[in-house]
Design a protein that fits this description.
The chain has one domain (7-127). The protein is 52% helix and 16% strand. The protein has helices at 7-23, 28-38, 42-50, 88-96, 104-115, 125-139; strands spanning 54-58, 64-69, 75-79, 84-85, 119-122. The chain has a five-stranded mixed sheet with strand order 4-3-2-1-5. The radius of gyration is 15 Å and the shape is globular. 29% of the residues are buried. One of its GO terms (molecular function) is zinc ion binding. Residues 76-114 form the SWIM-type domain.
């Protein structure tokens, strides 16, 4: 995980990773912390993780993006390296209104990383470029 989140959020995700590695579940106190730090994004993000909706898309050169199948059935592309998601909620509640640290999709990426539950997909450089360009076209 990159240090784009506040220290308390980074530490919480580290604790979740440690607990999950040791016991294969997340204790209630850390779930409460998740709800406290990330607010209304926490429970829907955990649902996405439970549904294994997060896929790490990698190219041979090492470029990586994440795709999250949202609850609406739409695929969103997330970039953990710069803490960004292509969903409308990220643009509105995170970027415009600053009401939340992140959306449920990027939180699901961080949680999937911590719990080791990301699905993996290796694609060619051209395929990854197409995925990234398709997102730009959807926005425009």
């Amino acid at each position: 995980m990159d240090s784009t989140l506040p220290a308390v959020a980074e530490e919480l995700l580290k604790e979740i990773k440690k607990a999950f590695q040791e016991t294969s579940h997340v204790p209630d106190d850390l779930l409460l912390g998740l709800k406290f730090v990330f607010g209304p994004s926490a429970v829907p993000a955990l649902d996405l993780v439970d549904q294994r909706s997060v896929t790490r898309v990698m190219s041979p050169s090492g470029r990586t993006a994440y795709q999250v199948l949202g609850s609406s059935g739409k695929l969103y592309t997330c970039y953990s390296s710069c803490h960004f998601c292509t969903c409308p909620a990220f643009g509105f509640t995170v970027l415009q209104k600053s009401e939340s640290l992140l959306c449920k999709h990027i939180l699901a990426v961080y949680l999937s990383q911590a719990m080791g539950t990301c699905q993996e997909l290796t694609v060619s450089e051209e395929q990854l470029t197409s995925i990234l360009l398709a997102e730009e076209e959807d926005e425009g």
